[in-house]
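INFO batch 0412 | record 1 of 1 | parsing
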Amino acid sequence: MSEPSESTAALGEELRSIVDHAEALLDAISDEGDAKLSSLRGRVSESIETARARVDEMQSDAERAGDKLAAVVSRWIEENPWTAVAIGAGAGLAIGLLLANRRRKTPNDDVPPQ
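INFO prediction complete | emitting tokens
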């Protein structure tokens, strides 16, 4: 599974967990017999079901978008292999220069001389 798919799945699971906790809270207060509370419980229950359906829909939409993006990038790399190599090398060089510059800087470089 790719990183975007993993983060999408993790977000979906976190949202499901929140919805499950809300449902558990709703069940915990279900013992009360008040009519207003019963009405509120019904509305919250409907909202929970709607939220659960939306989370499932959002997760499948995100997974489809991720798959589509991966296919487009893969096709572009197949059509432009040397450009992809140059971009990767340039990015690697830039990151390497940034890391090398960071390592050269010592903790005392920020302290002005006295």
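INFO post-check: The chain has a mean pLDDT of 80.
INFO record closed
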